[in-house]
What we know:
Distance between the termini: 32 Å
Shape: globular
Mean pLDDT: 97
Strand content: 15-25%
Structural class: alpha/beta
Number of domains: 1
Helix content: 25-40%
Radius of gyration: 18 Å
Low-confidence stretches: none
Largest sheet: 8 strands, parallel
Bound molecules: NADP nicotinamide-adenine-dinucleotide phosphate
Number of helices: 10
Number of strands: 10
CATH topology: TIM Barrel
CATH superfamily: NADP-dependent oxidoreductase domain
Strand order of the largest sheet: 3-4-5-6-7-8-9-10
Order of helices and strands: EEEHEHEHEHEHEHEHHEHH
Amino acid sequence: MDPASRIQLHSGNQMPIMGLGTWQLTDDTQQAVSTAMDLGYRMIDTSGDYGTQAAIGEAIRASNLDRDEIYIVTKVEETDDAYAATRNNLNELGLDYANLILIHRPPKHGAGEELWRGLVRAREEGLSRDIGVSNYSIELIEELIEATGELPAVNQVEWSPFGHDLDLKQHADFSGIVIQAYSPLTRATRLDDAGLLEIAEKYDRTPAQVMIRWNLQRGTVPIPKANQRRHLEENIAVFDFALDEDDLDALDSLNEHFSSLGRLPYV
Ligand SMILES: NC(=O)c1ccc[n+]([C@@H]2O[C@H](COP(=O)([O-])OP(=O)(O)OC[C@H]3O[C@@H](n4cnc5c(N)ncnc54)[C@H](OP(=O)(O)O)[C@@H]3O)[C@@H](O)[C@H]2O)c1
């Protein structure tokens, strides 16, 4: 594993094994994304409602990377016309296509069949390579598949040692859906947990690095966000050590379905 490694999606396309989150990236977004790409980040997560798309597009155009070396994830809102919102997102990004477009959250009622059909159309027209969901439960994913026959490539959910769900992961593995881990650092609220600190000290790593590494070794795809350069550097410096099985198990056992956002789809 290294920062350029990719994970296979059921579509046949591949996705980087970690990325950069950009929600509440309050510093100069273009600068932060450029720094991240220089450091080796190859996937950027955004959304129509983050306000970061235009600057991400600028950073991509200012980089020396080819478009196919960079992986862009964006999202449409549950109240959107998904096809039209996809076009808006691409306009803001200044890109011809996104690699992955997600339904940001399930609508109030139902599984979002209309939204899903809009994303299928967007993909068929080449506006996105893959489509997926976010904050979806097993039941809602099943409902979507049954209604449309279309399997999401990804389910992006809040995911950390302190809040994750074995059933959702097993269902995802069985179905061929990749789990993307948002708020993988618990939005910095659990970095001082004693159990986590003990493991971090054992490897001479930081709590953030241990949580990112736990995701990578458990086959989920973390997208930590960082404004600060030292955090950007720290979070990608996780490819020169490995947690052993006992410590992965110990991290699993920290699970208390903790959510920093209160939006877990499985509780
Ligand atoms: N689909 C959804 O509904 C959804 C919901 C939430 C988030 N997301 C996505 O997931 C991304 C990540 O989640 P998040 O932003 O909620 O939270 P997060 O990545 O868990 O945490 C970000 C916070 O951790 C701090 N941090 C970063 N690296 C650190 C380190 N090495 N040591 C100590 N603190 C560190 C950051 O500080 P600085 O910024 O000061 O560096 C920031 O305050 C978002 O940006 C967004 O792209 C998606």
